[in-house]
């Protein structure tokens, strides 16, 4: 939870006559955020496992499937960012209201 969320909870704790609906709403929002992050992390895990499967084994790094995939993904992302956002951040690279 963010410090602001914790501050809200502490403020509500100090006002016990208040409505606990705000506490529930804050927790519900945080639960949604956690669920979204879990989904994102599972998707990342799947991508990393697919990337790991690109490696044919031990040896020289030059023919490494993982490194080839990273280079292709990196150059494609840079071209897409330049074409659609001319000098701005890639959409979604910074989440507004992101909480830990």
Protein described:
- This protein has 100 residues and is an all-alpha fold.
- It has two domains: 52 residues; 27 residues.
- Helices cover 64% and strands 0% of the residues.
Mean pLDDT over the full residue set: 79
Helix coverage percent of residues?
A: 55-70%
Largest sheet: none
- Helix and strand succession? HHH
Radius of gyration, whole Å? 21 Å
Strand content: under 5%
What structural class should be given to the helix and strand makeup?
A: mainly alpha
Overall geometric form: elongated
Poorly predicted runs of 5 or more residues? 88-96
Q: Count the beta strands.
A: 0
State the helix count.
3
State the distance separating the first and last CA atoms.
5 Å
In short:
With 100 residues, the protein is mainly alpha-helical. The chain is built from 3 helices and no strands. It has helices spanning 3-13, 21-52, 65-85.
Offer a few descriptive terms.
100 residues, mainly alpha, 3 helices, 64% helix
Strand-helix topology:
Elements: H1 3-13, H2 21-52, H3 65-85
């Amino acid at each position: 939870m963010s410090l602001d969320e914790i501050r809200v909870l502490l403020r509500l704790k100090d006002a016990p006559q208040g409505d606990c609906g705000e506490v529930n709403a804050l927790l519900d929002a945080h639960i949604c955020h956690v669920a979204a992050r879990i989904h994102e992390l599972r998707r990342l895990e799947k991508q990393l496992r697919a990337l790991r499967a690109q490696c044919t084994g031990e040896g020289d790094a030059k023919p490494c499937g993982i490194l080839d995939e990273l280079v292709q993904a990196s150059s494609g992302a840079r071209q897409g960012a330049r074409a659609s956002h001319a000098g701005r951040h890639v959409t979604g690279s910074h989440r507004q209201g992101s909480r830990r």
